[in-house]
Write a structure and sequence with these properties.
With 412 residues, the chain is an alpha/beta fold. The protein is built from 14 helices and 17 strands. The strands form five sheets. A seven-stranded mixed β-sheet has the order 4-10-9-8-7-5-6, sandwiched between helices. Bound molecules: ligand C6P. Ligand C6P binds next to helix 4.
Length: 412
């Protein structure tokens, strides 16, 4: 089956809106995605038929809620091809997952003088936690350079992974450049030097098939809301050997076996890390989102996004005054397209787009070191997803033309 975007779009109630007298074209999917009726229904159904606290009660609703919550974990396991559900931790999102790691993994493996390796294309969520860890431990945060067209400089990466490197933490797909990094190869290099591999999969898992065992990364983080699921639910995958070794970051109910006056013992995996009442409805919504994506097929979703990029990149290159960032070869990227128009401020561009009913993001995209590296203050960014149609892609090009016309008229 290939993707029928027109039909899919009808599953998303929010997308049938008129915005500024124009049919809404939502191209801010890297920030967050919209939710299909199937996900909304799953959440409502949970609250209407099964809501109770999990793992605690013996009553029927508690058993039902627990079964659905743990069922969601199994759905995630299957989706990312983890070996066992014990390796799938529910978190609030990518940011929480990476913060947990910088705390717990950081304490376990990093000492003064050690190095943590990231890159210039990381999102703040995959920079600041490591920055804080480096400060705490008097370790060094080292950055992999980028090539001129915005790819990871692999020669530099290889050279910078040394015996001193304890953690390599890299994004699978850049939220600004859309570029896909060769995580499998990078993981091999990290492991060869005894470093732990952490992957920020926030912009990858929603858009392409991801097999954590094939990648062999030690940890892999992603967010539900970027893949049709509700906000407030995310995942931290970790290999059992590591999760067994690491201490939990949060403490309280749910995660304990026995609590004594001066000490406590932890539950087995994965619950050892999940303190407090978890986001049951979020997990169930995430499982419904995964069912929805799997019915389309992740290969199909990936192919469709690369086709959108292949369609748009030459069109954009042909428009005078438009600069697109990242590689020109669509096969190296997903459907994230950052651009600037002439000297226009990206916020003006995004406002002009909004007047056409087209939602794009403008700013530094939570990647200030990348902006500085590229000598930019900001970009506008269109990011496509499974429900975006050919007409949406054309409307995007049209919005660029209209924005150029509008501002040149205004300047004359
Ligand atoms: N990027 C964007 O518009 P959270 O907020 O925890 O769900 O995800 C954080 C995050 C981590 N890594 C990458 C690569 C990301 O793109 C994001 C979120 C959004 O680009 C919001 S800033």
């Amino acid at each position: 089956m290939t993707v029928n975007e027109e039909k899919l779009k009808q599953d998303f109630p929010i997308l049938s809106q008129i915005v500024n007298d124009e049919p809404l074209v939502y191209l801010d999917n890297a920030a967050t995605t919209q939710k299909p009726r199937q996900v909304l229904d799953a959440v409502v159904q949970y609250y209407e038929t099964a809501n109770a606290n999990v793992h605690r009660g013996v009553h029927t609703l508690a058993a039902r809620a627990t079964e659905q919550y743990e069922g969601a974990r199994e759905t995630v396991r299957r989706f990312i091809h983890a070996e066992e559900t014990a390796e799938v931790l529910f978190t609030r999102g990518t940011t929480t997952s990476l913060n947990w790691l910088a705390q717990s993994l950081g304490d376990a493996v990093v000492e003064a003088g050690d190095e943590i390796l990231i890159s210039y294309m990381e999102h703040h969520s995959n920079i600041i936690p490591w920055q804080q860890l480096a400060k705490r431990k008097q370790a060094k945060l080292v950055y992999i350079e980028l090539t001129k067209d915005g790819q990871l400089d692999l020669a530099d990466a290889k050279a910078k992974i040394t015996e001193k490197t304890k953690i390599v933490a890299l994004t699978h797909v850049s939220n600004v450049l859309g570029v896909i990094n060769p995580i499998k190869e990078l993981t091999k290099w990290a492991h060869a030097k005894g470093a732990v591999m952490v992957v920020d999969g926030a912009q990858a898992v929603p858009h392409m098939p991801v097999d954590v065992q094939a990648l062999d990364a030690d940890f892999y983080a992603f967010s539900g809301h970027k893949m049709l699921a509700p906000t407030g639910i995310g995942v931290l995958y970790g290999k059992r050997v590591w999760l067994e070794r690491l201490a939990p970051v949060e403490f309280g109910g749910e995660m304990i076996d026995f609590v004594y006056e001066q000490d406590s013992t932890w539950k087995e995996l994965p619950w050892k890390f999940e303190a407090g009442t978890p986001n049951m409805s979020g997990a169930i919504g995430l499982a419904a989102a995964i069912d929805y994506l799997e019915a389309i097929g992740m290969e199909n979703i990936f192919a469709q996004e690369q086709a959108v990029a292949a369609y748009l990149l030459p069109k954009l290159a042909a428009i005078d005054g438009v600069t697109v960032y990242g590689p020109k070869d669509a096969s190296l990227r997903t459907g994230v397209i950052s651009f600037n128009i002439d000297e226009l401020h990206p916020h003006d561009v995004a406002t002009a787009f909004d007047m056409e009913g087209v939602a794009v993001r403008a700013g530094h995209h939570c990647a200030q070191p990348l902006m500085r590296y590229m000598d930019l203050a900001a970009t506008a960014r269109a990011s496509f997803y499974v429900y975006n149609t050919q007409a949406d892609a054309d409307k995007f090009i049209d919005a660029i033309q209209k924005t150029k016309e509008f501002f040149s008229y205004g300047l004359n």
